[in-house]
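job 3f2a | input accepted
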Amino acid sequence: MRTLYHFWISPACRKIRLSLNEKGLKYDLVVEKEWERRDAFLSLNPAGEVPVLEDENGVIIADSQAIIEYLEETYEETPLLPKEAKDRAEVRRIMGWFDHKFQREVTDNLVDEKIMKRLTRTGTPNTAAIRAGHHNIHYHLDYISYLIERRSWLAGEEFSLADISAASQLSAVDYLGDVPWEQHPTAKVWYSRIKSRPTFRSLLADNLPGMPAPKHYADLDF
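job 3f2a | predicted structure (222 res):
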């Protein structure tokens, strides 16, 4: 059985979980607390970061983008990237937007401050960073709305890794109840479509010890 070393609230790990689910690949989950710096885990990934995938053939891949590319090249039956090069480029552009820009401007300021600092005991939340995250998220939700008003999905007419990357980030922030969905109804409709996919159910069942999700988190009709 393949194994995914992950941490619940990590958007990068959520992206891999959703990709594996969409491809219909079974896997075991192992929770890895990066800050513990376990020797056994460092032997798998010297960078000491999740996600790490150990495939059923014994291949070990670290880094979310490397894992995504490996899955696309190895399990081609259910592609999450389009056939045309220009369409793949657009998917990768939007993936980069959410994997890096959204992560830096929103997730780092909200999830890291409110959850990770508490778990790792590395200080108190920075209120200025939290305010910045609350401010910045509107820009990103507006961009999702802009794209969805012109396309069926974020990168085009087909569901793709662009949608998975965006939903992975937003699901982590939504676990905090910090996504202002009511102010962005178009983005909310897009997200509700993703939440309704069977592949998303395992994420909706996540429950961090001592940090329960808000009631709407797992509600498909939120």
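job 3f2a | The chain is about 50% helix and 5% strand.
job 3f2a | closed
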